Every structure is written in C-alpha cells, then in structure tokens.
Description:
It is built from four helices and five strands, in the order βαβαβαβαβ. It is α/β, with parallel strands linked by helices. It has a five-stranded parallel beta sheet with strand order 3-2-1-4-5, with helices on both faces. Strand 1 (12-17), helix 1 (25-31) and strand 2 (34-40) form a beta-alpha-beta unit. The mean pLDDT is 85.
Amino acid sequence: MLKRNYLHTQQLKILDIGCGKGAISIPIVKEIDSTVYGIDAMPEFIEAAKGKAKEFGVEKFCTFVNGDASKLINNLKGFNLIMVASVGPILGNISQTLSKLEGCLSNNGYVILDDGFLPDNAVQTIPVV
Length: 129
C-alpha cells in the first residue's frame, strides 16, 4: 500500500501505536527507507519487537517503547506516517483519536487507521457465518 501510494519516495518517519511485536513496522523498515518509533503497553511485546528488529538487521532504525500511548504521544512530533492497527479505543473514538494524532504528524503526513471493535453491551446485527 505504501508503494502503491508513492509513500516510499521519501524517508518515512513512522509512529506505530500498539506496535506489538513489530510485525507490521519491522518489515516496512526492512523494505522502505524509514525509521519507526513503536509504542505498546505490553513489555513482553516490546522485548520481542527489539529482538525481531535485531534479527532483521534494522535495530538502528527502530525504537520500541513500553508505555501508555495516550500519554507518550503528547511529546511526539514530526511523523509523516502514523499507524494505528487493532488497538481499540485507547485514544478515544475515531474523531478523538485522529485529533490527538494530528499533533504528532508532520505537514502532509498520513494516518493509517485499521481498527474495528464493538463496545461492551453492543448487539451484533451482522450474522456470523
């Protein structure tokens, strides 16, 4: 997707919210000129991400931090790509999330938001097959 939309023509400074074990960001850094700053609340995931980055030979381009993304993003700026994938409403609803992330973006930056969840007590209306 990044190549198809010509985002690979510049060095990407990526913020990966809920980076987990680096499964999305590490392959991007391996293939495209980029750096990543990943945040996850699970310390075991951060340690695994650091290990994978080293295994892929990209550890000098990757920073993985354990912590609360809602607090850590307050001091982060200048990212031209922010990825938020499968983390739920940790930064609020979609509008609140995008509003909070806006301060982290560089001019002409992009946000990839890949998330879907049902709130507690929600009634599912789509039949599961």
